[in-house]
């Protein structure tokens, strides 16, 4: 059973998401929060598998709440997906840097929301279906200048190559075709890279790919 926490200051939004998710046989909404402070407290109390977190909330916003959750070693297993009203939200890339596993626009189709919850809990990064690779790069262009990333020197040449391909938005299947290897081999390379860099998930690996300079804005591969 996938345990989900809903954090949004709009009661109707939470009620709609709860009704949809609770109707699934493998998903259970275990709690709700109306602001970031309450969200962090609820995550610590309930330890959900996934938190759907609104970016803009009173008192403590979703970005600050996400940073507090993802920086707590005891909450490392908790995944956070940011909710936003607009796809081009200026805070989306900052949310990924803060440790979010991805984001969704609030008017996402019901079946896409359910698939997203399952995908993130399974370890996949998530970008709203309408968001293209160019959008990733648009936000990446606002990121910091390349910096030294701990663990980068431990990567093999192939792992660096795979990390760069993850950074431009390729799936394991697309990476496999690009490198002429099996999808399982591609997945193994991605997993090993994440372990060496201490990345929580694929979304954080994308951020590290940009911040390390392995991928630069404007390169689509």
From TrEMBL:
Residues 148-213 form the HTH luxR-type domain. Coiled coil: none annotated. The keyword Phosphoprotein applies. CDD domains: LuxR_C_like, REC_NarL-like. Residues 3-121 form the Response regulatory domain. It comes from the Bacteria. Keywords: DNA-binding, Phosphoprotein, Transcription, Transcription regulation. The keyword Repressor does not apply. The modification 4-aspartylphosphate is found at residue 54. This is Response regulator transcription factor. It comes from Streptomyces smyrnaeus.
């Amino acid at each position: 059973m996938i345990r989900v926490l809903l954090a949004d200051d709009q009661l109707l939004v939470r009620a709609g998401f709860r009704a949809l998710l609770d109707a699934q046989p493998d998903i259970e909404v275990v709690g709700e929060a109306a602001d970031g402070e309450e969200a962090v407290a609820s995550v610590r109390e309930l330890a959900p598998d996934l938190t759907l977190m609104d970016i803009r909330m009173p008192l403590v916003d979703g970005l600050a709440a996400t940073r507090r959750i993802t920086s707590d070693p005891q909450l490392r297993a908790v995944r956070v997906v940011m909710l936003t009203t607009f796809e081009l939200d200026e805070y989306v890339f900052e949310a990924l840097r803060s440790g979010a596993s991805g984001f969704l626009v609030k008017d996402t189709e019901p079946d896409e929301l359910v698939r997203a919850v399952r995908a993130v809990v399974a370890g996949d990064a998530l970008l709203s279906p309408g968001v293209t690779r160019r959008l990733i790069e648009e936000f990446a262009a606002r990121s910091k200048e390349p910096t030294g990333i701990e663990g980068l020197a431990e990567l093999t040449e192939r792992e660096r190559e795979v990390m760069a391909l993850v950074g431009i938005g390729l799936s394991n299947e697309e990476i496999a075709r690009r490198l002429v290897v099996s999808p399982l081999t591609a997945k193994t390379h991605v997993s090993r890279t994440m372990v060496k860099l201490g990345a929580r998930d694929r979304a954080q690996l994308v951020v590290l790919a940009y911040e390390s300079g392995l991928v630069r804005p404007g390169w689509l591969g």
